[in-house]
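Give me structure tokens for this 253-residue protein.
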Amino acid sequence: MERLDGGLRALLRVGPLGRRRPQKRPILIGVGSVLVRARGLAKAFGQGQARVRVLDGAELEVVRGEFVAVVGRSGSGKSTLLHLLGGLDRPDAGEIELDGVRIERLDERGLTAVRRRKIGFVFQAFHLLPELTGAENVLLPARLARDGVEAAPRAGELLERLGLARIASRFPTELSGGEQQRLAIARALVNDPLLVLADEPTGNLDEESGAAVLHLLRCSTDSGRSVLLVTHDRAATGIADRVFRLEAGRLVE
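Here you go.
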């Protein structure tokens, strides 16, 4: 088990059984500070009688610096929601505004630019490139955005804080599932995005490693970054500023 740094220990409290849990912090929401606004989102899959409407008028606002969790049963549309908000898919109806830009109106080139500069993704599947080392995988988004040299120190800091510095030169096939997940977190943050979209970011981690990941995501909101995660982890919902449940295609707080 990697040793947790002093900053992490200061943020975590010791529970009755000696387990450390990340603490929720208060957030001040200012007027006009909305980063993400979704209105009337609809999305369906399939054809004819097999057609399934997974989102049906979903609405959401996330302010800058906010940590938001979305829960719901499997198949309720949580991952679909993240894909729409991140510009990976397009809604059948509705509006999505990110940092003042209606992204559902953008062409593919515009969406690619938004994803590279403003959004960090953490998927259920790690999506690490097997031919690249851990450090190279973390730096990949920055290199695609032509910021590789400037991002290198930030990548090194992220690897250190997540206990991955010692395995940075290894390839994904040489790493555990937990190590690969933490590399995916570092990769999501390397471009210093305005928004992080995370799909079960602690799903493959033990309790202490999961707490370290939540600490990094929680602290990343201090600079105004927003985090929206899909989760079944009670520790994650416990530190979220707000928690939504996705039911019948709509978000209920």
